[in-house]
Design brief:
The protein is an all-beta fold. It has one helix at residues 39-42, and strands spanning 6-7, 10-11, 14-17, 46-56, 59-67, 72-80, 86-93, 106-110, 116-123, 128-135, 144-150, 159-165, 172-178, 181-188, 197-214, 218-232, 235-244, 260-263, 266-269, 274-276, 285-288, 294-310, 313-329, 335-351. The longest helix has 4 residues, at 39-42.
Length: 352
């Protein structure tokens, strides 16, 4: 793990195991077409995002923070596995010095609003990770309260960092990934359409992804992520993976990407993949590589669409819940078969 991700105005590209002290990519010299703009100007093109995917009890969902410099955006979306019902809550945050911290050893993200309170925090010295959200209900959506905790010393916890070109070497994108094994509660208040629900002291799975990138004026990507457990040859294994399709023209995509498979604490970097859905996003997705390590299909069962405009920023995000079928292969040649394995895929674009 390098001490700094930027040295002498150049990114330190690579795939690293562990946790960086800081996820900070400021200071790259002339990142846009070689124009000698001062760094305080080009630093404004750095955008940050935090995504927390959780699977616990009968619920699976995502918590998102997006830092657009001018404003911040936070959203919680989750589905009930048993009946397929989706609940979503969002909050736009006004100007703030920083929404997503650089410090990966100690930090937090929060909305600070009582009616839409979302907080993701980590403290490695105290061996604690936590995710909280408390949402006020209305006539359609119930009140929701959730509290999840995890510990960094848990044996299947993984941490990895990818620093890759975006898409050329004069720009970079840094992604930190960790896989907390969570324990906690989630409760929903009563509404006219559903009774109150209270899930206490439940174990679950999660993935945390924090990204910082030099964004172009137009940006788009598709990704897939899943976490859970399955039984292989009579042995239960914890499985997590995150896969993102590389854009055309990506430099050194074979060596530098943010695709990872985690199996019981072992990390396997994956090759670049292609993601296709020729019949539309609501139909089957196909996720494959050219090295026979990734061969998956994804069948959606739930869909959430977000279209947000704020000043000069326009974001469109499709988040789909569903199941994966197929197989992944570890660096040791072990095949991980997936059948009806729940996860999330995304299609997102942004203009700013």
């Amino acid at each position: 793990m390098p001490d700094s991700l930027i040295k002498g105005g150049k990114p330190v590209f690579g795939t690293f195991v562990g946790c960086p002290k800081r996820l900070d990519i400021k200071g790259v010299k002339a990142p846009f077409t070689g124009l000698p703009l001062p760094t305080f100007v080009t630093n404004c093109r750095i955008k940050s995002s935090l995504t927390f995917i959780f699977s616990i009890g009968q619920y699976i969902g995502t918590v998102d923070f997006f830092d657009q410099k001018i404003f911040g955006y936070a959203e919680v979306v989750f589905w009930n596995r048993e009946n397929g019902r989706k609940l979503s809550y969002r909050k736009i945050m006004g100007p703030r010095r920083r929404f997503i911290p650089h410090n990966m050893k100690l930090g937090f993200c929060s909305t600070f609003k009582k009616n839409r309170y979302i907080r993701i925090s980590w403290d490695r010295e105290r061996n604690r990770f936590s995710a909280l959200f408390s949402m006020k209900g209305d006539s359609v959506r119930p009140r929701v309260n959730a509290a999840f905790i995890a510990h960094y010393t848990e044996s299947t916890m993984n941490e990895a960092l990818s620093v890759m070109p975006s898409p050329a070497k004069r720009r970079c994108s840094a992604t930190f990934i960790t896989t907390p094994l969570i324990h906690g509660s989630l409760s929903l208040g009563e509404t006219d359409r559903m009774p109150a629900q209270n899930m206490q002291n439940t174990n679950g799975y999660s993935i945390l992804l924090i990204n910082r990138s030099y964004f172009a004026f137009q940006y788009g990507r598709e990704s897939a992520v899943a976490t859970g457990s399955l039984t292989i040859d009579g042995t239960e294994k914890r499985i997590s993976f995150t896969i993102t399709a590389m854009p055309e023209g990506q430099v050194d995509a074979d060596k530098l990407n943010s695709n990872f498979l985690f199996v019981d604490g072992e990390c396997t970097p994956l090759p670049p993949v292609t993601i296709t859905h020729t019949q539309g996003m609501a139909k089957t997705w196909v996720i494959q590589d050219y090295e026979s390590m990734v061969d998956l299909t994804f069948t959606p069962t739930g869909h959430h669409f977000r279209d947000t405009s704020f000043f000069v920023v326009h974001m469109r995000v499709n988040t789909l819940h569903g199941t994966f079928e197929g197989a992944l292969k570890t660096k040791n040649g072990e095949t991980i078969p997936l059948h009806n394995f729940e996860g999330i895929v995304r299609n997102q674009s942004m203009r700013s």
